[in-house]
């Protein structure tokens, strides 16, 4: 026989590979379950969120009409001119009008007062869907009587019942029903100013409509043939735009609602994805150790003639099967979780969400789960190709190469997959890359800390310490140590929990800071010129300080450097932003700066004395930068039809954190005194009792004046933050529990690694207490270092968020940090000891027979 | 007679810690088909390394190994794996059975890899020959050392190898069990007409082969007929 006669045939024999994969897994199935458990929650979260997304999208489609309540809505924030009124009166086959404004209401039964959003309605709106009320007939009945519909939360807050009375301005309304749901309103949007519906015909008699009052008007139209809406809208659009009116159609709302929801959904998906990634680290670590234990079996197979591809495929089949089982379990759990999501997110969802099973979401979750777990598993798996049959001959010179250059390719594919997945969710490559790099940076940093720890312990090993301490320390770097994987997984978990806590703390402290000390905590607005002095006197009567009393004039920008809004829109090279023309400015006039302002450029020119004087205004510097306006630019303002030419004379830095009136534009005195205006009074109330008494007096005497009680806002904000916090905690729960599972799995796997030597120590006479101490010491070091790194990472992230996103100071409280650190360290030690109990409690021989 | 194994000027060196370690130095010998040969020598003499090279588990640093007229040093690792599956059988000191496979499955593996037919009945016959008809469905951990080595024998002969390499086949067994296993090994070998190469430092075992090759410090120091 000759070499020429030996023809190599590369045969895979797939059937045999499947059989071998099955046989090989026999005695490891409980271990394989650990791998599965790491990814189950991540996939469950993904499937649940994907399904929620699918359901909400189809629900938006099917419920879009009820979101708008009409075929066409035209909205205006200012008085509608007589030029456009004939058009507005001619549109649609059915019409309704709704006028909306902020006002105080007064519960006559218990003297309760509260700022609400009054919605004065005329017509049969909504034409699609309904204002859901208890009792149901109230939503129609209130329109014909002097009755009101009151928001559910408001009714609860003031312990009001249907049939009770409320006062709005000068008119008393009977409460006809409780609003449980109104078109297009989510829980959060109604929290600060809950809605109260009244019939439009009583609006004038409330006496609340006065010059300068800020009232929005919506015209609702129903068409017998809604298909014509598109052409109608394109026909009237230029005229509406010219008059500064906005419009909304079912299609527009569908797009806008969908867009808003997509942002929310992207956030949820990325959090779920982080849970899956965390689980995948667990998979990679577990497979790494699994493959180490399989070296002998692979070497035997190689001796018997198995080629490298076959050896690789036997384990690949196992991993894919595990990934698939994990993904299917995750998907099933995801479907169960999905049933609960509408309840969890109810305050954030724009539509009534159904919980239909989405096969698309399930297959997306399954594919994502299998692919990502496989990619992470490939990291240790590619090394299988390098296992030599020589291992069977116990030749120590032959080491298995776990550093395979192919791993770099797998790393690259993983990064590409993560970035690709993120892009698939947010459709923005830049953000996808930032997200991927941030996760990579966290991984690298934690890995670096782990490597540094191993190096430091080795370099500065405390040789003079007693044996138990030395053994505990040495476990951190000896072969089969779990230092890297445990520090990365525990560290990431700690970083996640820490960041959540800090962000919540920043948001809450940012608000509470404003309301503490001698800062103002009550703002009265819509005070008319003739009420200015008497409202101030009323405040003094209640011994409340008048901390600020400022006039406010509303106006719009007509021209900037001779360019109108339409010119700017056409001239794309123009630097001015069109938003400057669309904004309704609330402007005050004075010749001095307040304590929250600082001049950054130009100067304040003082009062305007003659009609020929140039009017120098002062603009907030950041806003000026945003709309590309500089010192010396000419701006013409439109104040209720009167055009006022001005020049930007100064730029100011404004501290918006203070509870006081702050302005983007400040006029000098001598210009706006005669313009339609209202006043704002800022004060501080010492207690809720004084606040209630004062508000009642104000509402009774000056029904047009609205009061914002900052304490109430704080309570509301607290509730809102609680709701947001709950959603974040709910989603973060997936990552945290996954982190715990990975931790348990890693520690359990490291138990198998440590088993041999612990048994040896036991055989040599080490006491239970001594083994316990060595084990506890190793896990304490790992837990403590991982927790410390994770917390530091979260502090860095929170600091960056505070500085760049929330524009707030970051002053972390130390006690919760210490508690978090201690809790994570302790948890690691407890899990470590709990999993090692079989070594501690049983005779060495029994353990050897059973587990090795 | 046909030469089944031809070792020509074979050297094996390892690089490590800045120095070169020569384990085998210019070893030459040839083995005729159907013969029985022992490779003996003290611990660390290089005999296991020589067995690894002869069986195609590793490549020589210098020289060439021809097994069944196939030049092993020209083949890739996967090609050598196929050569092993077709022509080579192994018996190891520590048995090297796959722990997750039953005794029967362990014996079936080489045949399954070749895609042959009647695998099960042939494997059962082999296990019956080594006296394990009642232990076929036991896992290695449930078998004694002697039983494990008998499974290993059955596996080694299952693919009708042209050459069988045994690395210290009795190294982990007591004297009584060793004798039984050795008898079984020689009986099966005679029946199959396989070439048998045993690496051992047990001179009593070596004396049962027709030829003894002595290795010392990586050199072939003697090649004697028994």
What's this model, at a glance?
By secondary structure, chain A is α+β, with helices and mostly antiparallel strands. Chain B has helices spanning 47-54, 77-87, 103-114, 119-129, 145-158, 175-192, 203-206, and strands spanning 3-16, 19-32, 36-40, 62-67, 70-71, 88-91, 163-167, 195-200, 211-216, 219-225. A six-stranded mixed beta sheet of chain B has the order 6-7-8-3-9-10, with helices on both faces. A four-stranded antiparallel beta sheet of chain B has the order 2-1-4-5, with helices on one face.
Please tell me about this protein's structure:
The complex is a heterodimer of chains A (852) and B (226). Chain A is built from 25 helices and 21 strands. By secondary structure, chain A is α+β, with helices and mostly antiparallel strands. Chain A has a 6-stranded mixed β-barrel with strand order 2-3-8-5-7-6. Chain A has a 6-stranded mixed beta barrel with strand order 12-14-19-16-18-17. Chain A is 54% helix and 16% strand. In chain A, a hairpin with a 2-residue loop joins strand 12 and strand 13 (563-564). Among the domains of chain A are: 14-66 and 260-427, no CATH class; 445-517 and 711-852, no CATH class; 548-683, no CATH class. With 226 residues, chain B is of the alpha/beta class. Chain B has a single domain, classed as 3-Layer(aba) Sandwich (Rossmann fold). In chain B, 35% of the residues lie in helices and 31% in strands. Chain B has helices spanning 47-54, 77-87, 103-114, 119-129, 145-158, 175-192, 203-206; strands at 3-16, 19-32, 36-40, 62-67, 70-71, 88-91, 163-167, 195-200, 211-216, 219-225. In chain B, the strands form 2 sheets. Chain B has a 6-stranded mixed beta sheet with strand order 6-7-8-3-9-10, with helices on both faces. In chain B, helix 4 (119-129) packs across helix 5 (145-158). The longest helix of chain B has 18 residues, at 175-192. Chain B is globular and about 50 Å long. The interface between A and B is large, with 39 and 43 residues.
């Amino acid at each position: 026989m000759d070499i020429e006669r030996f023809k190599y045939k590369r045969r895979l024999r797939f059937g045999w590979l499947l059989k071998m994969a099955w046989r090989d897994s026999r005695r490891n199935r409980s271990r394989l379950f650990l791998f599965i458990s790491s990814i189950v929650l991540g996939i469950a979260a993904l499937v649940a969120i994907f399904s929620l997304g699918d359901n909400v999208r189809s629900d938006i489609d099917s419920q879009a009409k009820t979101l708008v309540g009409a075929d066409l809505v035209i909205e205006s924030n200012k008085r509608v001119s007589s030029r456009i009124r004939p058009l507005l009166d001619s549109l649609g086959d059915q019409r309704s009008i709704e006028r909306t404004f902020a006002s105080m209401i007064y519960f006559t039964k218990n003297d309760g007062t509260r700022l609400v959003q009054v919605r004065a309605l005329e017509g049969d709106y909504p034409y699609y869907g309904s204002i859901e009320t208890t009792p149901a007939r109230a939503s129609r009945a209130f329109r014909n009587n002097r009755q009101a519909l009151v928001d559910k939360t408001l009714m609860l807050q003031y312990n009001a019942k249907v049939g009770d009375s409320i006062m709005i301005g000068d008119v008393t309304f009977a409460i006809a029903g409780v609003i449980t749901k109104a078109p297009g309103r989510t829980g959060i949007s109604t929290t600060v100013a809950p809605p109260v519906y009244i019939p439009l015909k009583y609006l004038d008699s409330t006496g609340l409509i006065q010059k300068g009052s800020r009232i929005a008007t919506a015209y609702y139209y129903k068409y017998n043939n809604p298909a014509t809406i598109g052409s109608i809208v394109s026909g009237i659009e230029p005229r509406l735009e010219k008059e500064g009116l906005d419009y909304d159609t079912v299609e527009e709302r569908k797009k806008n609602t969908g867009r808003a929801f997509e942002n929310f959904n992207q956030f949820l998906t990325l959090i779920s994805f982080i849970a899956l990634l965390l689980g995948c680290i667990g998979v990679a670590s577990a497979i790494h150790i699994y493959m180490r234990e399989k070296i002998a079996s692979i070497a035997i197979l190689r001796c018997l003639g198995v080629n490298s591809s076959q050896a690789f495929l036997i384990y690949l089949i196992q991993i894919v099967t595990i990934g698939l089982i994990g993904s299917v379990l995750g998907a099933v759990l995801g479907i169960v979780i999905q049933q609960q999501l509408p309840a969890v997110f109810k305050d954030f969802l724009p539509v009534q969400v159904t919980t239909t099973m989405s096969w698309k979401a399930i297959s997306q979750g399954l594919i994502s789960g299998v692919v990502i777990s496989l990619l992470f598993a490939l990291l240790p798996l590619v090394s299988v190709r390098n296992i030599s049959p020589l291992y069977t001959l116990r030749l120590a010179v032959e080491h298995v190469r776990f550093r395979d250059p192919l791993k770099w390719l797998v790393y690259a594919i993983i990064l590409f997959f993560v970035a690709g997945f993120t892009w698939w969710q947010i459709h923005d490559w830049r953000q996808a890359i930032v997200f991927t790099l941030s996760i990579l940076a966290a991984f690298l940093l934690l890995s670096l800390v782990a490597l540094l720890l191993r190096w430091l312990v080795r370099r500065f090993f405390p040789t003079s310490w007693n044996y138990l301490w030395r053994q505990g320390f040495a476990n951190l770097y000896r072969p089969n140590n779990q230092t890297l994987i445990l520090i990365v997984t525990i560290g990431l978990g700690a970083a996640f929990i820490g960041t959540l806590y800090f962000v919540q703390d920043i948001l809450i402290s940012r608000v509470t800071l404003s309301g503490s000390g001698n800062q103002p905590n009550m703002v009265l607005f819509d005070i008319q010129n003739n009420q200015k002095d008497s409202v101030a006197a009323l405040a003094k009567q209640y011994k409340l300080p008048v901390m600020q009393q400022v006039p406010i004039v509303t106006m719009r920008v007509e021209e900037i450097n001779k360019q109108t809004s339409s010119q700017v829109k056409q001239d794309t090279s123009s630097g001015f932003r069109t938003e400057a023309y669309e904004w309704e400015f609330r402007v005050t006039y004075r010749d001095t700066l307040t304590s929250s302002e600082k001049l950054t450029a130009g100067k304040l020119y003082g009062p305007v004395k003659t009609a020929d004087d140039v009017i120098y205004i002062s603009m907030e510097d950041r806003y000026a930068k945003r709309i590309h306006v500089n010192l010396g630019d000419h701006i013409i303002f439109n104040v209720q039809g009167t055009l006022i030419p001005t020049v930007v004379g100064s730029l100011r830095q404004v501290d918006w954190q203070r509870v006081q009136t702050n302005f983007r534009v400040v006029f000098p005195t001598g210009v706006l005194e005669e313009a339609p205006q209202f006043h704002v009074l800022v004060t501080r109330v010492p207690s809720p009792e004084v606040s209630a008494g004062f508000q009642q007096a104000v509402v009774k005497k000056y029904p047009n004046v609205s009061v914002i009680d900052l304490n109430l806002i704080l309570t509301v904000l607290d509730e809102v933050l609680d709701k947001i916090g709950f959603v974040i905690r709910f989603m973060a729960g997936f990552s945290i529990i996954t982190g715990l599972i990975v931790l348990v799995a890693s520690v359990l796997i490291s138990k198998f690694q440590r088993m041999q030597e612990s048994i040896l120590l036991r055989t040599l006479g080490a006491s239970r207490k001594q083994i316990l101490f060595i084990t506890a010491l190793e896990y304490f070091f790992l837990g403590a270092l991982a927790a410390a790194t994770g917390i530091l990472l979260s502090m860095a992230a929170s600091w960056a968020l505070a500085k760049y996103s929330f524009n707030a100071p970051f002053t972390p409280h130390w006690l919760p940090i210490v508690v978090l650190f201690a809790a994570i360290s302790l948890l690691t030690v407890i899990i470590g000891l709990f999993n090692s109990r079989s070594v501690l409690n049983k005779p060495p021989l029994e353990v050897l027979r059973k587990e090795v | 007679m046909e030469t089944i194994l031809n070792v020509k000027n074979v050297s094996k060196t390892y690089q490590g810690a800045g120095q070169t370690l020569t384990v085998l130095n210019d070893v030459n010998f040839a083995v005729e088909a159907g013969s029985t040969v022992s490779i003996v020598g003290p611990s660390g003499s290089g005999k296991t390394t020589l067995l690894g090279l002869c069986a195609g588990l590793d490549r020589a640093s210098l020289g060439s190994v021809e097994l069944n007229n196939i030049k092993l040093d020209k083949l890739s690792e996967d090609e050598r794996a196929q050569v092993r599956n077709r022509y080579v059988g192994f018996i190891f000191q520590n048995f090297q059975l796959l722990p997750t496979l039953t005794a029967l499955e362990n014996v079936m593996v080489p045949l399954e890899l070749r895609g042959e037919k009647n695998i099960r009945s042939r494997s059962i016959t082999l296990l019956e020959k080594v006296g394990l008809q009642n232990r076929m469905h036991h896992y290695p951990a449930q078998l004694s050392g002697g039983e494990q080595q008998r499974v290993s024998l059955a596996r080694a002969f299952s693919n009708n190898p042209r050459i069988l390499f045994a690395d210290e086949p009795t190294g982990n067994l007591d004297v009584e069990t060793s004798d039984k296993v050795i008898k079984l090994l020689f009986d099966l070998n005679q029946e199959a007409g396989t070439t048998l190469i045993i690496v051992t430092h047990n001179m009593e075992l070596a004396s049962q082969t027709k030829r003894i090759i002595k290795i010392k410090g990586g050199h072939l120091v003697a090649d004697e007929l028994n």
